[in-house]
Design a protein that fits this description.
alpha+beta; 6-stranded antiparallel beta sheet; globular
């Protein structure tokens, strides 16, 4: 059985890749608290990122950030309790991809998470996921979630799009001001 409880496709329901435009797009999924949910969440976000035009490096960073966020929700937030759910939402706006990972745990305060680079924490097995999410994403925060748990909110600015007047070619011949 797939670790999906509910899926809302929003503007993605047409079956085609999302087109970059001014219309925001929203995708939401409720995942079971099980290890398989990590791969599913990563794959879903990678497909959205690729369709939005992110390159290989940024897709890697987005995928790793989603993995870390869902692992944290699974392990720390929901404490691996199968009756709890992990809620994942992705929004594409005109300028960024925003990812929300929400657990049904007790929540936490980001300021209370030890710095994994501090000498006393270098051998610690926790704290690295938040460090990676902060490093890989343009925006990162943890807020109290509607379920009482923690909600990770992270965003990556959309890549600059090709100039539509050049049709993917170099700028040669694309200028309307030819000759002087």
């Amino acid at each position: 059985m797939l670790p999906i409880s509910a899926l809302y496709w929003g503007h993605f329901a047409s079956g085609s890749a999302p087109r970059m435009g001014t219309d925001p797009k929203h995708l939401e999924i409720t995942l079971e608290t099980q290890v398989e949910s990590v791969n599913l969440a990563e794959e879903m976000c990678l497909r959205v990122a690729e369709a939005a035009g992110f390159g290989e490096d940024d897709c890697y960073k987005i995928g790793m950030s989603v993995r870390e966020g869902v692992i944290n929700a699974f392990h720390y937030g929901n404490q691996e309790r199968p009756e709890k759910k992990i809620h994942l939402a992705v929004d594409l706006t005109g300028d960024k991809m925003i990812i929300h990972v929400l657990d049904e745990g007790k929540g936490f305060t980001l300021a209370n998470v030890p710095d994994p680079l501090a000498e006393e924490n270098l051998l610690s097995t926790s704290g690295r996921g938040i460090f990676l999410m902060r490093a890989f994403m343009d925006e990162f925060d943890v807020v109290p979630g509607r379920t009482g748990g923690a909600e990770i909110v992270m965003a990556k600015k959309l890549p600059l799009q090709q100039n539509p007047g050049t049709n993917g070619q170099s700028g040669q011949g694309a200028s309307p001001h030819q000759g002087a």
